[in-house]
């Protein structure tokens, strides 16, 4: 691995008595950040542990000396040093005066993602999870360089705090040929994400620190548009996202569903259980355990389903050895897992769900519908994601074809609240003698029950 850190450019902006101790420090290359708090001794944090740098305490003059030599602080209290990757974050008192600084070292590490090179080539969206300071930003910076330079993809980076490409209008060389969009205010990140897709025709979008519900929804929208996503978020593992309502949409969203007595008994669970609502925005998840050990979920959909059932085990562990070789360990999932597609549902036996949830608008077409052959079933979906329908189909194990032409469809499926307002569609369906079914909510669970109901009607 090659490291480009420009550490001296950071040290030159610190008070002299701090510079003096760090320039010749034996662990200088392992420095993570320098902390300067008013009235306290300066502290350096290394990968090996923290260490005080001087007996002298930090004064107002010391803090003022540093803040005057760096760029202005943005509304998220972060600043940088021109043409470097270093980040300076400030703390303020109640009068809005700066009384503390965290000076974090930014490094461009070339070769750090050799462990997941094969995952990048797959073209699937990747979510990177890890606690603060574990190196997520360094990883996605190198991902941007590899995708743009070596794989020749059109890459756009949404750089909210200028951490990925540095604090300058000219991006750092560490991102290669990738283009960078800066964000004027943190709360506007989700808007810039959508703008990147609409205006600049990217093949890949890279986002650091997805942290709000609006940003999670923007990520889902980008995924639906067929653009590869690479993003990071705080959390040790996938289970943290399940418990985080603002970010749950990244992995498909979570909802409570009610099972029938027989199904609950077969599964050995309670009648009210948690299930995933939709298809995840990211197909692959990487948990950064430490700098050299990463847990890989190559199928986020399956991992989330297993987690919600309580019989989950790690799928893959990758470790970078000292000789730059990657060691991969595979773990089998629990053997008692039964895919949802193996279950058969009867609407009349499901507690809390009435058969009237499926509104058959053209009742006079029942006999025609029952004569349709399964292999020729063409479905036109209205106000429903094709990915959602495909997932429901895969769980049932039922073959049908999605069509974009209403006149070719044998049935129409859509959301009740949207179909009610579309009189033109209902009139066209009546003219073409096409039956319409609606569901109340766009969830995999309701779609599965509807498809199973359709199968039962035809038998």
Topology, element by element:
Layout: E1 2-4, H1 7-11, H2 16-23, E2 31-37, E3 43-46, E4 49-52, H3 60-67, E5 78-80, E6 87-92, E7 98-104, E8 108-110, H4 117-121, E9 126-130, H5 136-150, E10 155-159, E11 179-182, H6 189-200, E12 204-207, H7 213-224, E13 228-234, H8 238-242, E14 254-258, H9 261-267, E15 272-276, E16 284-288, E17 293-297, H10 300-309, E18 316-320, E19 326-330, H11 366-370, E20 378-382, H12 386-396, E21 401-402, E22 411-415, H13 416-419, H14 423-431, E23 436-439, H15 444-458
Parallel strand pairs: 9-13, 9-16, 10-11, 10-12, 12-13, 20-21, 20-22, 22-23
Antiparallel strand pairs: 1-8, 2-3, 2-7, 3-4, 5-6, 6-7, 14-15, 16-17, 17-18, 18-19
Observed structural traits:
24% strand, six-stranded antiparallel beta sheet, alpha/beta, nine-stranded mixed beta sheet, 15 helices, 3 domains, Rossmann fold, elongated
Description:
The protein is of the alpha/beta class and 459 residues long. The chain folds into three domains: 2-104, Beta-Lactamase, CATH 3.30.450; 109-330, P-loop containing nucleotide triphosphate hydrolases (Rossmann fold); 344-458, Rossmann fold (3-Layer(aba) Sandwich). Helices cover 29% and strands 24% of the residues. The chain has 15 helices and 23 strands. It has helices at residues 7-11, 16-23, 60-67, 117-121, 136-150, 189-200, 213-224, 238-242, 261-267, 300-309, 366-370, 386-396, 416-419, 423-431, 444-458, and strands spanning 2-4, 31-37, 43-46, 49-52, 78-80, 87-92, 98-104, 108-110, 126-130, 155-159, 179-182, 204-207, 228-234, 254-258, 272-276, 284-288, 293-297, 316-320, 326-330, 378-382, 401-402, 411-415, 436-439. The strands form five sheets. A nine-stranded mixed sheet has the order 11-10-12-13-9-16-17-18-19, sandwiched between helices. Helix 6 runs parallel beside helix 7 and helix 12 packs across helix 15 (444-458). The longest helix has 15 residues, at 136-150. One of its GO terms (molecular function) is ATP binding. It comes from Sundstroemia setigera. Keywords: ATP-binding, Chloroplast, Nucleotide-binding, Plastid.
């Amino acid at each position: 691995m090659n490291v480009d850190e420009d550490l001296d450019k950071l040290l030159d902006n610190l008070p002299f008595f701090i510079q003096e101790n760090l320039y010749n420090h034996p662990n200088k290359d392992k420095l993570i950040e320098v902390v300067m708090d008013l009235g306290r001794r300066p502290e350096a944090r290394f990968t090996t542990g923290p260490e005080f740098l001087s007996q002298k305490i930090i004064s107002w003059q010391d803090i003022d000396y540093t803040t005057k030599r760096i760029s202005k602080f943005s509304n998220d209290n972060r600043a940088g040093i021109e043409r470097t990757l270093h980040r300076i974050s400030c703390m303020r008192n109640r009068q809005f005066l700066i009384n503390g600084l965290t000076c974090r070292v930014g490094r461009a590490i070339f070769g750090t993602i050799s462990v997941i090179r094969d995952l990048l080539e797959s073209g699937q969206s990747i979510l990177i999870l890890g606690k603060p300071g574990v190196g997520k930003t360094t990883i996605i910076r190198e991902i941007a360089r590899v995708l743009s330079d070596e794989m020749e993809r059109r890459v756009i980076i949404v750089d909210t705090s200028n951490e990925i490409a540095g604090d300058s209008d000219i991006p750092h060389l560490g991102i290669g040929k990738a283009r960078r969009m800066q964000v004027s205010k943190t709360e506007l990140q989700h808007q810039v994400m959508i703008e990147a897709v609409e205006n600049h025709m990217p093949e890949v979008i890279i986002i650091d620190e997805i942290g709000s519900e609006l940003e999670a929804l923007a990520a889902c929208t980008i995924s639906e548009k067929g653009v590869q996503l690479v993003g990071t978020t705080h959390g040790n593992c996938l289970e943290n996202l399940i418990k985080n309502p603002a970010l749950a949409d990244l992995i498909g969203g979570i909802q409570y569903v009610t099972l029938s007595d027989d199904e609950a008994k077969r599964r050995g669970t309670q009648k009210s259980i948690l299930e995933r609502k939709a298809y995840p925005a990211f197909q692959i998840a990487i948990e950064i355990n430490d700098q050299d050990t990463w847990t890989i979920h190559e199928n986020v959909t399956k991992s989330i389903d297993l987690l919600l059932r309580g019989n989950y085990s790690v799928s893959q562990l990758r470790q970078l050895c000292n000789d730059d070789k990657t060691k991969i360990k595979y773990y089998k999932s629990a053997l008692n897992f039964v895919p949802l597609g193996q279950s058969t549902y009867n609407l009349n036996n499901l507690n809390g769900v009435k058969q009237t949830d499926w509104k058959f608008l053209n009742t006079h077409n029942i006999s025609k519908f029952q004569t349709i052959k399964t292999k020729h079933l063409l479905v036109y979906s209205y106000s429903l994601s094709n990915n959602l329908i495909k997932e429901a189909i895969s769980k049932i194990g039922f073959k049908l074809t999605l069509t974009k032409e209403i006149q070719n469809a044998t049935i129409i499926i859509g959301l009740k609240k949207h179909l009610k307002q579309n009189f033109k569609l209902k009139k066209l369906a009546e003219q073409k003698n096409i039956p319409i079914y609606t569901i109340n909510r766009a969830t995999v669970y309701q779609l599965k029950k509807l498809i199973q109901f359709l199968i039962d009607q035809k038998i």
